[in-house]
């Protein structure tokens, strides 16, 4: 009897207990707000727009229950949705907010905890993307990148769009890109900061998080990756490997326009006064050789666009758990997951996307039993 395809969740988050203790110790964004009514779950305040004194405490941010921090809850979610393996990663905002003298030790603590949480599952159903101490010096970041190679369940790192604070085209990142390339460490590029609040208009709060999550996150991701490309990161580090969250933001739809603008940009013509060389490799080549995309995009047309952009062997299933849970209590199967499953299921590359590609990329073994 032929076995069913393995399902791997490449995009699934967790706030480990030690990280929650860090957030609970803070009073500025990001922080964890415990309510006076102890029967209510604490509120996670990670966006500046949520830190509004005019909003009642019980309505700020998002409520966070055990699904955000418990490995037992993660595995239970996996069982309900027939997921064999999950690649857990620290959810945003990672360690970006820490002072330089704190971030290195916290990175070691969090990454060691992610390794321990993954290894405690004896069926080998869990592995992880680590986080980096991005407010530290490049030398410290490189040292942690090297140390991660000793942790067998760490399969890459998750990286926000601001990196050291100046974006992914910052030349100071060169030694870090070099270390990530040399160690063949996969970079999971993920948004957090969105767009300036003023672009959403004065009525934005009436729409909750819809504008910031549906539009701000994908555009933030697109801009960050494009800045990497334009600054020649993939020319200098041609073996760098990047997995872009949320099916690449809007890259699948704007890649042609980006390429055309590069080709027609006078600033990139060295013979012109004040000109400089633009990226040497064309964007299509970079996307095919250096980029993978998750399929957290909720519609078949968008999954097909991702496949068209990077190839069917480079798109991977994800859930974004524990975010986008059912709003009704007691619901076991998540509509957000079902929507993603339906979107992937309509493609010819379903088995590859659901697990085969992730197993190949990360060197995962099939879970038995």
Short summary:
By secondary structure, the protein is of the alpha/beta class. The chain is 37% helix and 12% strand.
Can you walk through the features of this model?
Helix 4 (138-147) runs parallel beside helix 5 (174-182) and helix 10 (300-310) crosses helix 11 (335-345). It is globular, with a radius of gyration of 20 Å. It has 12 helices and 11 strands. The protein has 369 residues and is an alpha/beta fold. The chain has an 8-stranded parallel β-sheet with strand order 1-5-6-7-8-9-10-11, with helices on both faces. Strands 2-3-4 form a 3-stranded antiparallel β-sheet. It has helices at residues 17-24, 71-80, 100-119, 138-147, 174-182, 210-230, 233-236, 251-263, 283-290, 300-310, 335-345, 350-362; strands spanning 8-14, 31-33, 43-45, 62-63, 85-90, 126-130, 154-159, 186-189, 242-244, 291-294, 315-316. The two termini are 15 Å apart. Helix 10 links the parallel strand 10 and strand 11 (315-316).
| Approximate shape | globular
The helix content is: 25-40%
Which structural class best describes the helix and strand composition?
alpha/beta
The largest β sheet comes out as: 8 strands, parallel
User: Low-confidence spans: pLDDT under 50, at least 5 residues?
Assistant: none
SS summary, helix count: 12
Task: State the separation between the terminal residues, measured CA to CA.
Answer: 15 Å
Strand order of the largest sheet: 1-5-6-7-8-9-10-11
Q: How are helices and strands ordered from N to C?
A: EHEEEHEHEHEHEHHEHHEHEHH
Question: Mean pLDDT, as a whole number?
Answer: 93
The count of strands amounts to 11
How much of the residues is beta strand, in percent?
Answer: 5-15%
Give the C-alpha Rg: 20 Å
């Amino acid at each position: 009897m032929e076995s069913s395809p393995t399902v791997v969740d490449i995009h699934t988050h967790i706030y480990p207990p030690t990280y929650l203790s860090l957030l609970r110790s803070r009073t500025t964004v990001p922080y964890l707000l415990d309510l006076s009514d102890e029967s209510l779950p604490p509120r996670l305040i990670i966006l500046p727009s949520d830190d509004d004194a005019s909003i009642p405490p019980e309505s700020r941010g998002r409520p966070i229950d055990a699904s955000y921090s418990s490995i037992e809850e993660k595995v239970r979610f996996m069982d309900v949705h027939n997921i064999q393996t999950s690649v857990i990663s620290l959810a945003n905002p990672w360690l970006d907010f820490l002072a330089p003298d704190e971030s290195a030790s916290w990175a070691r603590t969090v990454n060691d905890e992610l390794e321990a949480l993954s290894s405690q599952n004896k069926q080998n159903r869990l592995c992880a993307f680590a986080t980096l101490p991005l407010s530290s010096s490049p030398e410290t970041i490189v040292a942690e990148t090297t140390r991660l190679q000793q942790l067998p369940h760490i399969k890459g790192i998750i990286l926000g769009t601001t990196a050291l604070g100046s974006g992914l085209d910052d030349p100071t990142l060169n030694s870090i890109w070099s270390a990530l390339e040399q160690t063949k460490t996969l970079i999971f590029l993920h948004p957090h900061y969105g767009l300036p609040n003023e672009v959403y208009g004065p009525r934005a709060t009436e729409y909750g998080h819809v504008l910031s999550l549906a539009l701000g996150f994908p555009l933030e991701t697109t801009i960050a990756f494009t800045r990497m490309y334009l600054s020649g990161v993939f020319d200098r580090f041609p073996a760098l490997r990047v997995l872009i969250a949320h099916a690449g933001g809007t890259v699948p739809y704007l890649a042609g326009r980006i390429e055309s603008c590069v080709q027609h940009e006078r600033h990139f013509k060295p013979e012109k006064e004040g000109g400089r060389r633009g990226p040497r490799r064309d964007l299509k080549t970079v996307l095919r050789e250096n980029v993978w995309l998750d399929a957290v995009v909720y519609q078949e047309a968008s999954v097909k666009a991702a496949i068209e952009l990077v190839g069917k062997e480079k798109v991977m299933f994800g859930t974004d758990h524990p975010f986008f849970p059912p709003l009704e209590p007691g619901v076991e199967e998540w509509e957000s997951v079902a929507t993603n499953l339906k979107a992937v299921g309509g493609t010819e590359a379903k088995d590859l996307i659901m697990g085969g590609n992730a197993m190949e990329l990360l060197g995962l073994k099939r879970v038995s039993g």
